[in-house]
Design brief:
single chain, alpha/beta, 43% helix, globular, binds 5'-O-[(R)-(carboxyoxy)(hydroxy)phosphoryl]adenosine, binds zinc ion
């Protein structure tokens, strides 16, 4: 069965064609074609995604990408269409939904609405080319979803059976990275930029101080939060919500702490700009703070729910330090699954995968797609 999948929830326009086979327990996929157009550069001057610009670009790109896919695969008509219906930016989501509705008029094939977050959860099993399948994993699994719009801990009882156990009360982790990057005049998206300079400084300090001292000061890897608080790093930022008993996060206070810190530094700086060294110090401490919080709560959830499988997904899942500390803290017994190249950030392959599983689960029964609505705040 051929599934044409469409993704437009944020600033990436994606269309893929997947050949899908197998049942709910053993779905198998082959990528026939995959097209993605990123708008990141266009949104860069705004320091974040500008919804109306995203909408305009999706409308422009969707027919171009479809043409590309159709040409490559000589596609006449797919068997099913899968489209992201939420969560995300509603003006952006609508462009994909309306496009799918138009294609339905032409092809009269079922249209499966897909939850974007479910796509991220399944993304570690995908690939941008070739064949892949969804293997058997041990349930319950825990998923840490960290993107520009979400920071969630999800209990996965089985595929398509999820429970949200914790989430951010304000900013998402990726959003905090982007906003702090903007404060330091680093380009959008800020996550990779902050991570790059933080990692450079970490390596430098490690060389200078030696690993034992650096570790004790919490510079390389935070193993003991108490030691960290006693000794303090070069610049100190809070670790929000570590003491709360639930699995929720909060990054807005951390972001504000960076703002005050920059203002404090700038008052003695005539140009009002940060030098490169200060930027890298802030980046390092900020990244450590985010990573420690994410790792601490994830570890707690893994223990409470006796889970041995962790899926980390969403754009922030590509953060080197997060992956490193998570592996170290959770130990060898935990199976950590991460999306491969091109699957961590938004893409349409993951939407096609979920689309197929949902299609199978519902026995192919999907009504007229005119009822599909964009739901910016759609929950799992
Ligand atoms: O999942 P995604 O592509 O889009 C959303 O659905 O939001 O995630 C994008 C987010 C951005 O905030 C970006 O700064 C962040 O992921 N990001 C990173 C890294 N790569 C992307 N954050 C930290 N470290 C990275 N290496
Ligand atoms: Zn996403």
């Amino acid at each position: 069965m051929k599934i044409l999948s469409i993704e437009t929830s944020c600033d990436e326009t994606g269309i893929s064609l997947l050949e899908c086979s197998g049942g709910v327990k053993n779905p198998t996929f082959k990528v026939l074609a995959n097209a993605l157009s990123s708008q990141a550069k266009l949104h860069s001057p705004y320091g974040g995604v500008y919804p109306n610009l995203a909408k305009r670009e999706h409308i422009k790109n969707l027919p171009i990408l479809l043409e590309k896919i159709s040409k490559k695969t000589k596609l006449k008509k797919p068997d099913v269409i899968a489209v992201t219906s939420g969560p995300g930016l509603e003006p952006a989501l609508w462009t994909g939904i309306v496009f799918a509705q138009e294609l339905y008029k032409k092809w009269n094939v079922p249209v499966v609405p897909v939850n974007h977050m479910e796509g991220h959860i399944i993304s570690p099993f995908g690939s941008v080319k070739g064949n892949f399948k969804i293997p058997k994993i041990n349930f319950p699994a825990i998923s840490l979803l960290v993107s520009g719009g979400h920071t969630e801990l999800i209990l996965i009882k089985d595929w398509m059976d999820y429970k949200l156990i914790g989430e951010t009360l304000d900013d998402a982790a990726g959003e905090a990275f982007d906003k702090v990057a903007r404060m330091m005049e680093l380009p959008y998206p800020g996550g990779p930029e902050i991570s790059k300079i933080a990692e450079e400084r970490r390596t430098l300090l490690l060389k200078k101080l030696g690993s034992a001292t650096a570790r004790a000061r919490g510079i390389f890897q935070q193993e003991n939060i108490r030691v960290f608080q006693e000794q303090g790093p070069e610049i100190s930022l809070p670790r929000p919500m570590l003491k709360s008993k639930n699995y929720d996060f909060s990054f807005s206070g951390l972001k504000t702490a960076v703002l005050y810190l920059i203002k404090k530094i700038n008052s003695t700086n005539e140009l009002g700009k940060l030098d490169e060294k200060t930027k890298s110090k802030i980046a390092l401490e900020f990244e450590n703070a985010i990573v420690e919080t994410l790792v601490y709560k994830t570890k707690k959830a893994m223990e409470e729910y006796k889970s041995s499988t962790l899926i980390i997904a969403g754009g922030v899942a590509s953060n080197t330090h997060l992956k490193r500390v998570m592996k170290k803290e959770l130990g060898k017994k935990i199976n950590i699954l991460l999306p491969g190249k091109g699957l961590a950030t938004d893409n349409s392959i993951m939407i096609g995968m979920v689309g197929y599983m949902k299609y199978l689960k519902k026995g192919g029964k999907f009504g007229n797609p005119k009822n599909i609505k964009a739901e910016g705040g759609l929950r799992l």
